Amino acid sequence: MIQSDVDLQPFNTMTIAARARYFCAATTLDELREALEFARTKQLPILPLGGGSNIVLTGDFPGLAVHVGMHGLEFDPLDDGIRIHAAAGENWHQLVMRSVELGYGGLENLALIPGNIGAAPIQNIGAYGVELKDTFEQLTAMEIASGDLVTFSAEDCQFGYRDSIFKRGAKDRYLICDVVLKLPRIWQPHVSYPALQQHFADHGQPLDELTPAVVANAVIDIRNSKLPNPVEIPNAGSFFKNPVVDEPLYTALKTSHPGLVAFEFGTQWKLAAGWLIDQAGWRGYVKNGVGVHDRQALVLVNPGHRCGSEVVNLAREIASDIQKKFGVTLEPEPRFYP
Ligand SMILES: Cc1cc2nc3c(=O)[nH]c(=O)nc-3n(C[C@H](O)[C@H](O)[C@H](O)COP(=O)(O)OP(=O)(O)OC[C@H]3O[C@@H](n4cnc5c(N)ncnc54)[C@H](O)[C@@H]3O)c2cc1C
Known about the structure:
Blueprint: E1 3-7, E2 19-26, H1 29-42, E3 46-49, E4 55-57, E5 61-68, E6 73-78, E7 81-87, H2 92-101, E8 126-127, E9 130-131, E10 136-143, E11 149-153, H3 154-157, E12 174-184, H4 194-202, H5 212-226, E13 235-238, E14 244-245, H6 247-256, E15 262-265, E16 268-271, H7 273-279, E17 286-287, E18 290-292, E19 299-301, H8 308-326, E20 335-337
Parallel strand pairs: 2-5, 3-5, 4-20
Antiparallel strand pairs: 1-2, 6-7, 7-12, 8-9, 10-11, 10-12, 13-19, 14-16, 15-16, 17-18, 18-19
Helix pairs in contact: 4-5
This protein binds flavin-adenine dinucleotide.
Flavin-adenine dinucleotide binds at residues 13, 47-55, 68, 88, 113-116, 118-120, 122-123, 125-127, 175-176, 227, 230, 235-237, 335.
């Protein structure tokens, strides 16, 4: 079951060539538990893997890479909606489309986000004004230290913007095994994002005739038109989080750059990181086979299948330029390993 010295290039959408000292693809809870026992005896660090669409491998991994591949997807109709039980190895987009086909809304804005269910709570995936937390009920995770199963409620997960307890207090302590979501029977569309409004206007789509399927298809169209498909151009999606800044910095930036794209975020402002990077002149930049996508400056691409350090160097150069030009700190969204 456990293999040694395994190439991780097929397991990350950046197609970075790096090797894992040990690798295991677990498709049952027992296999997962055995893999963790193996790692415990050898005192190896764990790299949990789903679809590999939100990681950057900066070098070889000195421990055990575990592909969490349990399958199972169940839809339980309720009086007031539907409950979805999804195992960690199921594909996120397919879950969204199954729920839409069944006529339930709530996940349609999250269509076409790559990756598996197990990783979705890690950064509380979000798009077009909707986040996983909006429909999340609970998850089951295996504690890496003991192999015990633990349940986390939405409150336990401490979800935030591209954030959860699994990036902070519970970082590297659990493998997520399954997730439970609940979608309401009465659907409330979330279509205030300008890109969605523009799409409906361009296609003559009346806003009072929307269905979850119509919104999902709009999201798919928009994403296909501006985001590179990782199968064609290796990438890890948005490379930086949209920085959240206080009112004084926002006002100063808006005065010096009237075109600044920003959204209210509680008492603060969330700036469009892609706009900052674009304004700084990085869009379309390529060096040594690594670059910035020519349609979406927030996405770093690796068409040359270069090593992780090239990607990290470019990310550092961009972040330091944005700091210099705008006084704004950019934080990477994907997780770097090791
Ligand atoms: C083209 C593109 C577009 C994207 N668009 C969006 C977007 O709109 N919104 C958004 O939020 N994200 C987006 N992403 C990022 C990515 O799709 C999500 O973060 C997704 O949830 C990652 O899933 P994955 O299975 O590929 O995770 P992986 O990359 O395999 O893992 C991501 C992190 O989770 C950990 N992990 C994985 N599985 C488990 C598990 N079972 N238990 C514990 N830890 C685990 C990994 O160790 C790693 O730290 C995009 C990525 C790409 C390439």
